[in-house]
Each structure stands twice: as structure tokens, then as C-alpha cells.
Amino acid sequence: MEAVHNRRIASLARHLCLEVDTGLPSISFSPTSASRSSFGHVKQAPEDPILGVTVEYNKDPSPMKVNLGVGAYRTEEGKPLVLNVVRKAEEQLLADRSRNKEYLPITGIAQFNKLSAELILGSDSPAIAQKRVVTAQCLSGTGSLRVGGEFIAHHYSGPKIIYVPAPTWGNHLKIFPLAGLETRTYRYYNPKTRGLDYQGMIEDLRAAPNGAVVLLHACAHNPTGVDPTKDEWEGIRNVVRNEKQQLPFFDSAYQGFASGSLDTDAWAVRRFVNDGGETFIAQSYAKNMGLYGERVGALSIVATDPAVAARVESQVKLVIRPMYSNPPTYGAAIVANILSNRALFEEWKVELKAMADRIISMRHQLFDALTARRTPGNWTHILNQIGMFTFTGLNKQQVEYMTRDYHIYMTLDGRISMAGLSSRTVPQLADAIHSAVIKFSN
Ligand code: PLA
């Protein structure tokens, strides 16, 4: 009896990797036992270049540390922000005892989908009126891109190649190959002018195959903060639509964050959709509603006619069902609540504008602080770039130095999240940049 008991404890201890003296012969877990594992060959993967910055930041005990890595909005006090309007929507949801926890349909909350399509395309969008738009609630921007990518990989009659800007949000380069699309880049950013390489972009799109898929950042390009002008957008549209019959896939992760206006930031998407052509759009509510961890987003596919749209929707469901079955309810219910209630919608716009304005004010404060320090170099791009990020032009060595000596955490490509800065931390960042630029000239 006791022997059985001891054997059980020994087995449990082995399971938990504990050392317990049970009087039974012990089994040691020397490193050689790892080689017997079917996964012993698995290599340690590097941390994600963006989310890994937060991992490093969390390990730093310094009270002066500042996280300017991931694009997450912070208040002047450096705290994450839950919008008031989100709190109100949550209170309404909580008070509604008729709500339950049933599964959603595969494509999510119908009202959320309708309102999301209207938000990005405009409530007067002809494509919506003509029932040519299919929208599926997905897991934030990332999930929408992935579902859209897989749908294209399965069903697109054109080349299964997607062109993304160089540089782009790093995850694009991982999402699309896994979705089954060959992923290539087009020129986008010119480090010399710190602006758009418009000629290079047009040349590369022209040289790309007819019908290729083209990923475009709807606004507030990440990481560069450089957007095409309206004229440049028209030039791009002309190549994509008229010259090359390519398929535009918009990534809209920052609607309202760039200019403070939802409509202004949707301008390029609407130009492309209103010309009647097919368009894919991935929307995220992570930043503009501060719903990062709720994972709320939508994939909209604009087809050329309602019959195609209906069949497309049926196949989108077949992409989603084996992937995660159906999306979570809570975040999308918050969004639907805000978008469907006039008062809440107006309140959201005010709060969104306040976030965008605070980011813009950080640009001015940082620029002024560098000017006051007479930091070598031209820093006007801090003022000119758009959205959450400044692509500083600082190199890896300079970034590593700033992290080591000033506890400033940012991605190694020199991108800083302006939304993570505050009036309190601007001087620290300016000192760090000043010192880094003098110590390690580019
Ligand atoms: N598309 C772009 C262009 C993004 O910048 C991000 C987020 C997403 C999609 C996806 O966001 P979501 O899935 O959370 O909706 N980029 C962040 C975070 C803010 C990240 O890397 O995940 C960034 O720091 O670049």
C-alpha cells in the first residue's frame, strides 16, 4: 500500500519536476533526457521586435524607465487609458440582463459589421447601398489581415503575391506568408529625405505583375509616419487600378489617430472603394477605441456585385470556422454600442481627437526640446510625420545606448511611439537623443 503511495508521489513529483525523497530509486533529469524529447531540437526563438521591447522594459527595475516601443496610448501621467465612452458602453452592457454568453455567428455581430463598414467607407457609401460589401468581425487588425490573406490565397484568380511597403509593420512579413501568399516589397520610404519615395513606389508597382495584391496603410504609416499626399494617392490609385488591375488591401489600424478626424483618415480607402473596384480592408479598434486587449476588428471585402459578395461571404466563413470558430463577443458589443448611439459616438470622437492632439503636442515638445539643446541634425520630420510613431532615423547602436544609459525602450529601427511620451519624459528622451547623436554619429 505504502509502496503504491510512494510510487504515485514519485510519479507526480517527476511530473512536476520536483525532487521528493520517497525512498524509491530516484530518476534524475540530466540534460541528456532532453535529447530524448521529440522537441529537443526546438530552437529558442527571438523575442518579437516590437512586443519583445515590452518584455525587456518589464525586466528593468529603474524608476525612470520609459516604454516607447509598442504603439499603445498613454496619458500625461504615463498610464494606459480606458476611454470614458468605453466605460459608459460597458456599464450599459452590464445593466442589460437580457444579454447572454451564446456563441456568435462565424462572422460575428451583424450590427457591429454593418457599423464598421460604414465607419471606414462612409455611411453614404454606394458600395454598401449596393450590397457589395462583406464584413466579418475578426480578432483585431491582425486577425482581419490573416483571414483576408487566407481568403485571397484560397480564392483569388490573380497572382497570389502581395506587395508590402519597405519598411512596413513587421508582422505583415509574417502574416502573409503564413496565410499562403508570396510576400514582396515595394519602395516606400526614402531615408535621405525622410519622406515618401513616390517615384520608387510607382516604379515598383508598375514592375509588379498585373493583378498582384498591394498592401497599403490607410493612414499613419507604421513605422515611418509618412503618408502619400492626396495627389500621390491618386497617382498610386491610377497605377493599381487602371494600369495594373491590382488588388488593394488596406490596413486601417489608426483611423482617427492620424488627423483626429475619422473621415479624413478614411479618405484614401474611400477613394479606392468609390471607383467601383474590388478592395480588401482590415480595420482595428485597438488604438482608436483603446480596445487593445479586447481584440476587436473587422475584415471588409468590397466585391463588384452583390451575388459575388454573398458567395465570398460563404467562403470567408470557411476560412474562419476551422481557425477560431467564431469571434469573442465582449469587445465588439462595446464598439457596436458606441457606434449605434449618437451621444456615445459624438463623445468618442471628442476623446479620439484629444488622443490625437496629445500625440501632436508631443511632437512639438520633442522638437522644441531638441532645438533648445542644439542637437545636431535636422529634426523637422518629428513635426511632419503622421500618427502614433516618429521614425527618428536613429540607428541600432544609438537606440541600444539610449536603452542602456537612459532606460528608454524603443524598437531597434529607431521608431518611437509618441503616444507613450509625456511632458515629464520629453526632457529625458531629448537628453538621450542628444547624447546618442553626439556619441555615435550616423
Ligand atoms: N496593422 C498595423 C499597421 C499596426 O501597426 C498594428 C499594430 C496592427 C495592424 C495590428 O493591431 P491589432 O491586431 O492589435 O489590431 N501595431 C502595434 C502593435 C501598435 C503590434 O505590433 O502588435 C505596433 O506597435 O506596431
UniProtKB/TrEMBL annotation:
Assigned keywords, A-Z: Aminotransferase, Pyridoxal phosphate, Transferase
* Entry GO terms, CC: cytoplasm
Q: Which cofactor does it need?
A: pyridoxal 5'-phosphate
Give the taxonomic lineage as stored in the record.
Eukaryota, Viridiplantae, Streptophyta, Embryophyta, Marchantiophyta
Q: Which InterPro entries match?
A: Aminotransferase_I/II_large, Asp_trans, NHTrfase_class1_PyrdxlP-BS, PyrdxlP-dep_Trfase, PyrdxlP-dep_Trfase_major, PyrdxlP-dep_Trfase_small
Q: Which reaction does it catalyse?
A: L-aspartate + 2-oxoglutarate = oxaloacetate + L-glutamate
Q: In this record, what's one Pfam family?
A: Aminotran_1_2
Reply yes or no: does the keyword Transferase apply: yes
- Which intervals hold domain Aminotransferase class I/classII large? 64-433
User: What GO molecular function annotations does the UniProt record carry, in alphabetical order?
Assistant: L-aspartate:2-oxoglutarate aminotransferase activity
Which EC class is this protein assigned?
Answer: transferase
EC number(s) of the enzyme? 2.6.1.1
Annotated PROSITE patterns: AA_TRANSFER_CLASS_1 (PS00105)
Family assignment from sequence similarity: Belongs to the class-I pyridoxal-phosphate-dependent aminotransferase family.
Kindly provide the name given to this protein in its UniProt entry: Aspartate aminotransferase
Any remaining note in the record? In eukaryotes there are cytoplasmic, mitochondrial and chloroplastic isozymes.
Relate the assembly described in the record: Homodimer.
